[in-house]
Automatic annotation (TrEMBL):
It comes from the Bacteria. It comes from Micromonospora echinospora (Micromonospora purpurea). This is Uncharacterized protein. Residues 131-155 are annotated as: Disordered.
Length: 155
């Protein structure tokens, strides 16, 4: 497994509320990618490597793969609009969220499981679409290797 400054790759972060991933490259190096909220795709973020590795705490958090996926999809669902199956699923999550907010309550266990499952599905669908379009930062396999939420981790 590749490492950068003692951090095993891939590594997932939240950098000032923006998902950032640090991944190994085929040449033995690494690349950083951050979510572009306007497109849902990935932008190069190598300039953030020192910041995310050295600045953990404050507004920079290490995330499990699953928490990273959930955060990416929460932001995509909030900021993107369109047609098709992915956007229909985003609308479904939005409706569940709006109902809970209207009733001034947290998700029920069933709602939380449904939202989590939908977001895992939309992540894979969106990443596969990005790959077909040639986005070098796209990686639907993150879902396959996801780990459980760490204790004390925000969602």
């Amino acid at each position: 497994m590749a490492t950068v400054d003692g951090v095993e790759l891939p590594a997932y972060f939240e950098h000032y509320d923006t998902p950032v991933k640090l991944v190994a490259t085929p040449d033995g190096g690494y690349a950083a990618w951050k979510l572009d909220r306007s497109t849902g795709g990935w932008r190069p973020a190598d300039d953030l490597v020192d910041d995310v590795i050295g600045g953990i705490g404050g507004e920079i958090y290490v995330r499990s793969a699953d928490a990273f996926v959930q955060h990416v999809e929460q932001l995509r669902g909030r900021h993107l609009r369109g047609e098709g199956e992915i956007f229909a699923l985003y609308d479904r999550v939005r409706a569940i969220n709006e109902q809970a907010l209207a009733e001034k309550r947290n998700y029920t266990a069933d709602e939380a499981a449904l939202v989590n499952g939908i977001r895992r599905r939309t992540f894979v669908m969106f990443e596969e679409q990005l790959q077909r379009a040639g986005d070098p930062g796209a990686d639907p396999s993150i879902v396959d290797g996801s780990s459980p939420k760490l204790d004390g981790e925000r969602q």
